[in-house]
Every structure is written in C-alpha cells, then in structure tokens.
Amino acid sequence: MRAEQRPFAEGTGQPGTRAAYSLVRVYRISPGPYQLPLANVAGRCGLPPELVGRFVALGLVDAERDARGRLWFRPSAPAAIARVQRLRTGLGLNYAAIGVVLDLLDRIERLEIALRRSEQAAKEQTPWT
C-alpha cells in the first residue's frame, strides 16, 4: 500500500488523513520570523533546552509558542543567547542585571541608528559650494 493510501497519518493524530513521508522533518508554523525549534537552538548554542527555556521565561531571548506550547525562535536567537552567556561569564552579572544591560544596549543601538540617519539627512540637505 502506498503512503498516500494509508488510513492513518503518523504524527498528525487524525485518522483517515493521507500520510506523506518526507526525508527531512518539515516544521509547519505560521509564516513569520520564528523558524527554529527549541532543540535546534539549544543544540547550536551547546546549552540544555531547559536553560534556553529559562532565558525565554526571564525575557532575555525572544520566542513564540505555537498551539502545542512548543517554543520557536528567530534565526538570530543563537547570537542573542551567546550575548547573554558573554555577559554572564565575562562580567559575572546575574540574569536580572543582564536584562537591564540588554535593554540599555538595545536603546543605545536605536539611538545610534537615529543619529546616523539624522547626520545623513543633514548631509543631503546641505548644499556644498
């Protein structure tokens, strides 16, 4: 019997649906910036998934939960987790202080971007003679 004709699709939980067996696992989430599952992010960072989940709970890393409660991350999440780890080990900060530092660094970055834009606009408006 072909896979499309089987009465139960494994993993879908719904009898009578057609099964399509692919060679790679396909994550079906709503289109958006959150594409990496927790296990993938934790593996890339070399950290236990529980610690990555704790970072999410503390608000140090952004993630989104799907209907099943699984965490999904942006592709930039490993870099954000590495930033948290550098602040923790390099400066010896606790997680509450890391949150404050991350907020301040993000604010500085936004201000620098705004400053560059205003400088660029000033250059474009100033006629040179």
TL;DR?
By secondary structure, the chain is mainly α. Helices cover 49% and strands 5% of the residues. The protein has a single domain, classed as Multidrug-efflux Transporter Regulator, Chain: A, Domain 2 (Orthogonal Bundle).
Write the layout of secondary structure elements.
Blueprint: E1 36-37, H1 38-45, H2 49-57, E2 64-65, E3 71-73, H3 77-91, H4 95-125
Antiparallel strand pairs: 1-3, 2-3
Helix pairs in contact: 1-2, 1-3
Description of the structure:
With 129 residues, this protein is mainly α. The protein has a single domain (31-125), classed as Multidrug-efflux Transporter Regulator, Chain: A, Domain 2. The protein is 49% helix and 5% strand. The protein is built from four helices and three strands, in the order βααββαα. A three-stranded antiparallel β-sheet has the order 1-3-2. A hairpin with a 5-residue loop joins strand 2 (64-65) and strand 3. The protein is elongated, with a radius of gyration of 22 Å. Residues 1-12 have low confidence and may be disordered.
- Gap between N and C termini, in Å? 81 Å
Give the overall shape.
elongated
- Helix-residue proportion: 40-55%
- The sequence of SSEs as H and E is EHHEEHH
Separate helix tally: 4
Given as residue ranges, the uncertain stretches (5+ residues, pLDDT < 50) are 1-12
Biggest sheet strand line-up:
1-3-2
What's the Cα radius of gyration? 22 Å
| Whole-number total of structural domains | 1
**Overall average pLDDT:** 81
- At CATH level 2, the architecture is Orthogonal Bundle
Proportion of residues in extended strands: 5-15%
Major sheet description: 3 strands, antiparallel
Structural category: mainly alpha
